[in-house]
Every structure is written in C-alpha cells, then in structure tokens.
Structure to design on (164 residues):
C-alpha cells in the first residue's frame, strides 16, 4: 500500500471535474472502513454546487482552500440507532483515512478539514447541507486534481517506539 507513503494534504486544485467512477471508488473505499460492531454510522454528501462549496469553505478559518475545489465530500454520522454512540467519530476517522488513501491512489488530491468535534464548525457545515435530520457533520474533504505537487515528509521516529 504505497499510498500511505505518498499521501499529502492538497489545498489547491485544477479547474477540472472529478469523474463519476472516481467519486464512487472514493466512497466505496470509505465504506470499507472498520467500525465498532460493524455499525457503519456514515452518510456522505457529495457537493458539487459552487455556492455550497463556497459556503463550506467558510466553516472555519482553515477551510478556505475548499472554495476552489471542484468537489467536496462531507462525511456525516448518524445519531440514532447506534449500539456504540461513543465510537462514531473513531469510525468516521477510519472512513476518512480510507478516502484520503483512495484519493491518492486515483491520482487526485484532497485534504481533511476538521468539523467534529467542534460544535460551531459542525453546525455551520450542517446548515450548508440543509440541516439533515439525525446526522452530524464530521469533516469537509475538498477533492480534485492537484494544482500543486508535494512530497510527503518522512515522519518515522524511532524515539516514539517502545518495546516492552
């Protein structure tokens, strides 16, 4: 799985649409993530509407890079019918990581913009989505063809490994 060692956060995108089959593949990868008790609490909003993307780019001071993305995916989690409510954000984090790795594998770029657990960001994102009942916004993921090329830094640090 070479993508683990290639994935970087991309914040600028070409003006080029992402193909439907690539969007589907990204969402398939997300839904293959592990989840507590296999509860799969996720729902995904695929946003292509430019005005909605612009609004999502304003959920926080760090989200401005979303404005020029051709596509934004907003992973959300259900709030009802869950066996383990306390694990939904962990489940969604696994799904987002799968998405980012698949985005890289498909020759695209993306970045994880945090909404959860910050209530103000979650509420702003949900407002853009039309306040979907029973769902909470977890993140905002701009996706597109990268307008920049970056190398991943080597983060391996032996000092952080402890054998017992």
């Amino acid at each position: 799985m070479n993508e683990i060692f290639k994935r970087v956060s991309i914040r600028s995108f070409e003006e080029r649409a992402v193909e439907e089959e690539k969007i589907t593949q990204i969402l398939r990868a997300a839904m293959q993530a592990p989840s507590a008790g296999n509860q799969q609490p996720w729902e995904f909003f695929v946003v292509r509407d430019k005005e909605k993307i612009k609004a999502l780019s304003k959920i926080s001071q760090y989200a401005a890079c979303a404005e020029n993305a051709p596509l934004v995916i907003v992973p959300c989690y259900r709030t009802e019918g869950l066996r383990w409510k306390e694990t939904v954000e962990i489940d969604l984090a696994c799904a987002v990581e799968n998405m980012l790795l698949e985005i890289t594998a498909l020759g695209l770029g993306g970045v994880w913009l945090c909404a959860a657990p910050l209530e103000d960001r979650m509420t702003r994102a949900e407002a853009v989505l039309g306040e979907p009942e029973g769902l909470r916004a977890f993140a905002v993921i701009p996706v597109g063809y990268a307008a920049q090329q970056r190398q991943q830094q080597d983060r391996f640090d032996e000092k952080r490994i402890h054998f017992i």
